[in-house]
Structure formats: structure tokens, C-alpha cells
Amino acid sequence: MPSNVIMPQMGESIFEGTITKWLKNVGDPVKRDEPLFEISTDKVDSEIPAPASGVLSEIRVKEGETVQINTVVAVIVEEGAAAKAPQPVAAPNPETVAEPVGREPAEPTRAETDRSIKSSPLVRRIAREEQVDLNQLEGTGFGGRITKKDILSHLSGRQPTTQPGPSSVQAIGKEMPKVRSISTDHSEVVPMSAMRKSIAEHMIASRRTSAHVSTVFEVDMTRIVSIKDQHADEFLEREGSKLSYMPFFIKTAAGALKEFPIVNASIVDTNILYKKDINIGVAVALDWGLIVPVIKNADEKSFLGIAKAASSLAERARQKKLTPDDVQGGTFTITNPGVFGSLFGTPIINQPQVAILCIGAITKRPVVINDAIAIRSMAYLSLTFDHRLIDGAVADRFMSSIKRKLEDWEEPLF
């Protein structure tokens, strides 16, 4: 019997996904659980395994197309069965409702019975920013859900009621006509990848949401550098991976967040949401974009536990093996452009968080200590914070705590 390959639901708030790459061609043999295609969602990029062994007989959704969850994207037949000739793939019809495959539709939750919230977080965010009443839109998604395509179609036909200006949608080219790759002797036009579009949306939304302010501290990293160098060989032998500076920053940040819970909070309407868990996201630069896997309950982990978690998440991010849970629930973010030589930066806050810590390069510099000049390993650490919630004095005390913990490091490594 043929096996349908469906667009999976990569998280409870995800209702659509974009196929970014097929790893097999029609006619290729596939094995169960072998990577079959890559997808991109609002939360994560991931490889999707084949649900059965056999031969890939059909590919129904092309690379770059976005479809609803449970949509059949391909068909696998048993080996020896006549593979169907590849069929031309039509562009998704926004008037067609994708039906669930292989299981009954889940009972609607209490929230889903409310017409106004049958949509993804991304759709609701665009609606807030563009002042769109979702109750006035007809959803074409499963169960009448309002999709991203629905709201973008609405915006493209809406007459401007205010002076035109750059909206979050227009700013990333959502209303621009789709273009193919165009090359000339002097330039090349290439459409954004699904991940790049998602990053652009999040960056613009954060700038529009938070009152960004940054503060920069200089930290003497000489003690940390000495400890790292002293234990580097032992760590590699015992753990099978290199010891990096990142676990030191994650451990100290987790301690400072316990001291200053306001930095670990979020804003919900006119309320402050204090998070009991300290879940630290660490930005990982990939060849195809940026992703922020999350170390859950970082304050409860030892240095070694943090080091292992950070190494595992970074490796799985590069291999596209992250799960939706790996990138959800973050309460604070650390980014480390210092590995590329940057002295310091002022990054954009990862919504709905209220602060992000930026680590600059660790370099040897002459500094004055007790009226004498000494050569020390120094680094600039900057905190970008949401001034709607965090006052400058609080941000500086938070950074002073991190500075003190790093310069007077006493935590055991093993």
C-alpha cells in the first residue's frame, strides 16, 4: 500500500511549514526514518524522516512552497511497485482547505472555539502591527484557521488609512512580486529563503515592540582564560568535546537572572509576567541563517551540564536535528559575535524576552591595575534591554553581577 508523506506539526502553535529542500528525487529508494526533506517553520528548521521504506513515487509540493500541516507532500510505494510518473505541481490554492491525513482532526480546544484566535502567533502579531481585525477575515486553513497567506492577501488589497510608511510586512518584501534568480554582469537578485524571511519578520517586529537600550561593561577575563587553558586537555579527554567560553557566560548569566528576575520576565499587555524557569537561548550562526536553541532550567545545571547541553544543541542545530521543543520557551538570550572578532554589539531583543547579552572578543590589552600597567585578557559585554520594563540602574546592576562572577570565578568545572 502507498504511504502518504504529510507536512508534520512542528509544535502546538505551528500550523504550516515551508519545504526548503527535497533530499530525494522521484524514483529514489528510501528507508524508514531516513531524512527525506527539509522544512522551515516559524520556530525551527528541521529534517523530516521518511515514514516508511520503499520508493519515492510522487513529490506533490515543490521546494519553496508553504502548505498547511497534514497536507500530503509526497507518496512512497513499496519496492517493485510501479512508480508514478512525476506530476506537475500546481501552486497551492488558497481556497482549498487541507484535510488531515491518517488521523481524525483533534477536538477543538477552548481557545480554538473563539473565531478570533484561529490563527498562528505570527498571524496575530501581523494583525496587531497592521491593525487588522481578524474577525473580519475568512480563514482558508484547516477548520477555518486564518493563515499567513490570508492576512497578507487582505493587506495587499487594503486601502491605506494613514500616511504610508514601512510596515513589518512591506519592509521584508512580502508585498513585492515573487522573483526568480536574476543575474547580470553587475548584480544578482535571489529570493529570500524561508528562514531569512522569518528572521526578518522577527527582527522588525522586535524593533517595533521594544524600547531598545544598550549598556556596555568591560570585564577582565584573565582568570577565566587561565582556567580554560588549564583544563582544556582534561575536558577534551573526559567529555570528547572542546571546552569553550560559552558555558562560563551561561552559568554566570543564570546566576544573575536569579538575582534580578525582572530581566527574566516578559510584558503581557500592561502586566509583567515573571518566569519561574530560567531558560537561556544561545544564538548559533549557521551557513543558511541564525537559530537560537534553548538550554532549559540553566540555573539548576552544573557547569558540566551546561557545557554538554550547549555543545549538543549547537551540533544538532548545524545538522538540522533540532526539535520544536529545543527552540521554545527561552526567557533570556546570549549571542557571541566575539568568536568572529567583534569587540561588542547591540543586538535586537528576542521577543517576547526583555533582554539579550552580547559577548565581544576576548583580547589582550594593557590596563591599569593598582596604578600599574598590566597586560590582561579583556572583553566587552553589552546588554540590550527593553526600557519599557527594565530601568538603566537595574540593567547595570545585573551586568555588574555578571562581571563580578566572571572576574572572581569559583565554580568547579567537573
Largest sheet: 7 strands, mixed
Strand content: 15-25%
Share of residues in helices: 25-40%
Cα gyration radius (Å): 24 Å
- CATH topology descriptor of the largest domain: Chloramphenicol Acetyltransferase
- Helix and strand string, N-terminal first? EEEEEEEEHHHEEHEHHEEEEEEHEEEEH
- How many helices? The count is 8
Query: Which structural class should the secondary elements be placed in?
Result: alpha+beta
Estimate the global geometry from the Cα principal axes: globular
Give the class-level CATH name of the largest domain: Alpha Beta
Number of domains: 3
The CATH homology group name of the largest domain? Chloramphenicol acetyltransferase-like domain
Whole-Å distance between the termini?
A: 53 Å
Contiguous runs where pLDDT drops below 50 for at least 5 residues: 82-102, 104-116, 159-179
The number of strands is 21
The CATH architecture of the largest domain can be named as: 2-Layer Sandwich
Q: Averaging pLDDT over every residue, what do you get?
A: 83
Question: What does this molecule look like?
Answer:
- This protein is an alpha+beta fold.
- It has three domains: 3-77, OB fold (Dihydrolipoamide Acetyltransferase, E2P) (Beta Barrel), CATH 2.40.50; 111-201, Dihydrolipoamide Transferase; 211-407, Chloramphenicol acetyltransferase-like domain (Chloramphenicol Acetyltransferase, 2-Layer Sandwich).
- Helices cover 25% and strands 25% of the residues.
- Strands 11, 14, 17, 18, 19, 20 and 21 form a seven-stranded mixed sheet that branches. Strands 1-8-6-3 form a four-stranded antiparallel sheet, with no helix packed on it. A four-stranded antiparallel sheet has the order 5-4-2-7, with no helix packed on it.
- Strand 15 and strand 16 form a beta hairpin.
- Helix 6 (246-259) packs across helix 8.
- The model is unreliable at 82-102, 104-116 and 159-179 (pLDDT under 50).
